Amino acid sequence: MKEKSEMFTPQAMAFAVRAAIVAMSLVPVAQAADSEEDPAVTAMVRPTSTIEAGVGYNSDKSYKFGEYNGLQDRGVTGIANFDIRGGGRYDNGDTTRWSVQGSNLGLEDRNLQAEYGMQGLFRLKFEYDELLRNRSDSYQTPYLGAGSNNLTLQPDWQVPSVQTNRATINSPNARGLSAAVQAGQYLPTTSGASVTGGPAVVAGIPASPGPLRAAQAALIIGNDLPDFHGYDLDTKRTRYEGGFLVNFGSEWDFQASARHEDKDGAKPMGTVSRATGGDISMIIADPIKQTTDQFNASANWTGKRGFAQAAYYGSVFYNDVKSLTWQNWAMATNAAGNTNTMSSAPDNQFHQINFTGGWSFTPTTKLVASGSYGRGTQNERFLQDAFTPYVSRSSLEGLVETSSVNVKFSFRPLRNLNSNLGYKYDNRDNQTPVGIFAFYDTNETPAAAPAVPATNNQAAFQAFSQALGLSKTAIASNGTINANRPYSRKLNQVTFDNDYRVWHSQYVKLGYEFEQIDRECPGSWIDCSDAKQTREHSGMFEWHGNLFLDSLNGRAGYTYASKKVDYNENAFLALVPMANVVPNIAPASATMSAYQFMKSMGWTGYGPVAGYVNTATLVPANVNYNLFFNNNNALTQQLYGNANRISELVGMRRYNLADRDRHKVRGNLNWQATDSLSFQGGLDFNKDEYDNSVYGLKDAEKWAFNFDADYVFSEKFKANVFYTHEIDRQNAAGNTYTANSATAAQNGVTALSSTCGSYANLLARNLVNKIDPCTNWGQETTDDIDTVGLDVNHKGFFGGKLELNGNFIYSMARTNTDMTGGNWANNPAAGLASAPTRTIAAFWIPAADLPEVKTETYQIALTGQYKLDVRSSLRGMYSYAHMSSNDYMYDGMQAGGLSGVLPSFEKAPSYSDHFVGLSYIYSFNL
Amino acid sequence: MRRVQRVFLLGTLLFLGSAAWGGEMAPGDSDRTIEPGRSLERDKVCTHCHDENDPTPMLVIYQTKHGVRGDPRTPSCQSCHGESTDHVKNKAGTSTRSKPDVRFSGTNKSDAEAQVGKCVQCHESGKRMNWTGSQHQSRDVACSSCHTIHAPRDRVLTKSTQPEVCYTCHKTQRAETHLISTHPLAAGKMGCTDCHNAHGSTGPKLLVKNSVNETCYTCHAEKRGPFLWEHAPVVDDCSTCHTPHGSAKTPLLKARVPYLCQECHSGDHGAQVDSAANLAGGNVTTVNGINPLANAAARAQLAARACLNCHVLVHGSNHPAGAKFQR
What we know:
The complex is a heterodimer of chains A (926) and B (327). Chain A has 926 residues and is mainly beta. Chain A is 8% helix and 49% strand. In chain A, the strands form 5 sheets. Chain A has a 26-stranded antiparallel beta barrel. Chain A has a 3-stranded mixed beta sheet with strand order 7-15-16, with no helix packed on it. The longest helix of chain A has 15 residues, at 12-26. Chain A starts with a helix and ends with a strand. Mean pLDDT of chain A is 92; it is low at 1-17 and 19-34. Helix content of chain B is 25%, strand content 0%.
């Protein structure tokens, strides 16, 4: 502002503008003749529009660089943006306003928006938007039909294999697709002439494959590798959105909008199949063809002392891909059962009504309350085949009801004290029925079901089948019988915050929060949640205000929260209903169910934390003990209807439901050093301690330090520089335990390597396999991230005609994973004649730190805009972006990487990309 | 019963105390007594000095929604800045005038409560319903901390420029958007307000919906279910495993797999240690470095998608054989 009497210097344009302003106040409809209007005045009284058109050139092809910006291809691209605005002049009473905007029209992330309205009466909006998400352009697959939901192999596909010993070459092994691996050594287990055509081998001495094997390897590689072909993995969201607002007087309005979004493309996804020796996997191009429709409507009332809103939200998801089918690469293409099928995300709907109201009793006393009720449904028909022998119903009949209540009461009990009292209730009530489903993992061939069971497992499954009302051989002994767990969650939360002004510019804040969350699965035979209830108390103290100077202010706060949990280590049993059925096993039948026996002994599914006991000879005889926890091992897997051991270690706590102490420290300082120079610094610290977790996440901490400096060199020249340093550390523990046993030797060898423990021999270790301290391990992962930025803007070149922007961003993220502990590895050469290590049964292998994962990114962007005249300007832009990343996880995706996962040849993202563009911008007034 | 009585008594005292202090109107307290329709006559008091030559482009207000003459709700300068009689009349005749009653910028700007009080005279409903007691309100964030009123384009209302406004305070999030795994914030295809309502909400972290999951499902409805086989932490809170603004671990993970999974799963093959000894050529695959065999591979949990090579549908499966999220 200036002082009128001293500073005002009349100018021609100023008079014109002033005339326009005066016209606004005096003339109801002031329509100046366009031809006579000064452009500066026009710009003041009529909407300004711009159109931009030009060309750009992108130097390289990179999916990652173009992940979201559409610049994934090398070559020329168009630059097209516009922003056209019209409607009534600003100097008359016409409230009509409209606009049409388009951005990035030459790229696959284009956006179009249109709006038309008469302010105070109504407004219409429309938007079209594309969002490309590039995922990988290095992905390869041997499958025909990539991108569809039916993947098949070439009929002459050779199952990859690697020679593993003198005679065995037929085990599927994806490493067989690498010539280097095929030329590698194998371990003969017996001596003599090689059956694969090579020279005579000596047991225990690694040998190279013979010519017959080499020929077979060449056949695999020569046949299969050419089948691999690239398939770009990307998804694209195309969104259409429209809405309107209608005002009914000054107090009421009604708004509604609808949004339709298509998501198409493919993304990488693992798939698992069964092969000889275990599960195998591959990364496929998962076809995406989905639609989501969302609707919003609300009626709003705003009065002098209050407001209210009634609203509806609906979301309907539809998936055009109902299932996905593929052939197992580890089986001959014409073998029975090599076709696998999995489900896709099911269609679902969610509808919600919301009510909110607020009332100001006094200017400082206010109550705001809201409530909502929603229904989520899903009833997709289940996919069934020979590997799902028992399905209790044909579709989910899924229903989740959500309800929430929020109440907030704000008041001022003392002159300088502002208080807020809040209550929140949020309930996810999953009313999906519980049912029982039997299946064979990953298309595993059902085991033969003899009429007279030869094993406890066979007998147990016959009993389980009969318990389900089936014939006793309906579910084979390698099956799994599980019940679904519809999780429900109910949150109650109370908050009380107080902000007190101690004196001028000095404030303190005290806060308290209590949160209780109850979890359950309605219909489950036993508590399904690891924590039926969690209770957390939080206390917060904060100061904020000036520090010594008006130009220096800051904030510092500390929050402590303590969460207590009644942890339930038996929650997994809700998945396995047969744990509550007595397996009728002749002649020494159990007398109770697995659960009843566990409960009677005070154990979890992990059983006693103890070493070997020959439970078959317990005196007095305890049939249940021997059946369910033989040799003190964990609950015998198939005797509770599950093909895998799913109980956790005693002392394992899932971290989101574990006892936790949380410390948070927040602080920042802002210093306006001079009129043109300012500094900001901040520190965030979070630490979570899980002191009662023996295994799982033990503690986690995160530091973030921020520094910013802003300098205004002049009215036209300013700069900002910032630096952020983050440390994110997590510390977890586990145990590679195995089953107790009385095995004394491997291939006749009894000695152990002596790098851990003081076991006399293999037997001594095997007797305590379940509680062996040598199998404890720890993992500490630390992310260390530095980010530096510089932003410079100058508007003053060539008499203000040229504006330059410069921007630089550098980011370096390093992840280090440090390991402690180790595990035992059996020696494959144990007992083999001539093997140099034939006297060692097993080695203890210390865990080793993983290689550092490093991702470096930097980008320089320069933009200049030169004003040619009042209406037009030229914009030039240049950017250079670079990313380099290493990650050992990608090693397994190459040929010769993993034995059980087919290579996909994906690479860690890296790019060096130049982009240059030139465009012409024209502005005008409609 | 005595407990209920005590609560009632406490509530009554709080209310009465609040009402007592509420009688004293603070500068920002809502009175909703703006004049019907913006009066240019009233504006002239200000535009007489604050014209097109003013260093701050005051007159630009007429190009914005706050300057639409035909809308009876349009405010005058005084609606927001107060009558500012001393500033206008300068009775003291000093060369430097006293400041307007309510100031939204500069070193002498009014406190946040006074600033916000002016805005909520008109803007209390809609997205601002939960402003009172919200994180921003309680940390003295004023409307003008984010919004630029005297500008034809308010940067915070445009998706591509909005994050820069938020990063003024949320600097850690600014850094995280430059990591290898992010939402498309830096690309300008997503704004902070796609997930957050800066004016207050019923959800945590100012999220636009009642919960983290409800917010995520607005874009990721395929993960909403309900599914036959639910993964407990997924239905509980997406942020159990994911961090939204950026991560060095794709896709937006809080920890690297397999360790993220092993923080909760210690049974069966989840018990295994995954260290450099298990990488190709590591001491385990070569059996203590002695037998470098062709068939020995790295552990699948240390390559490709780790646990998700097989347990793919961790957000939920609807296949009868999908209890382990493999189908």
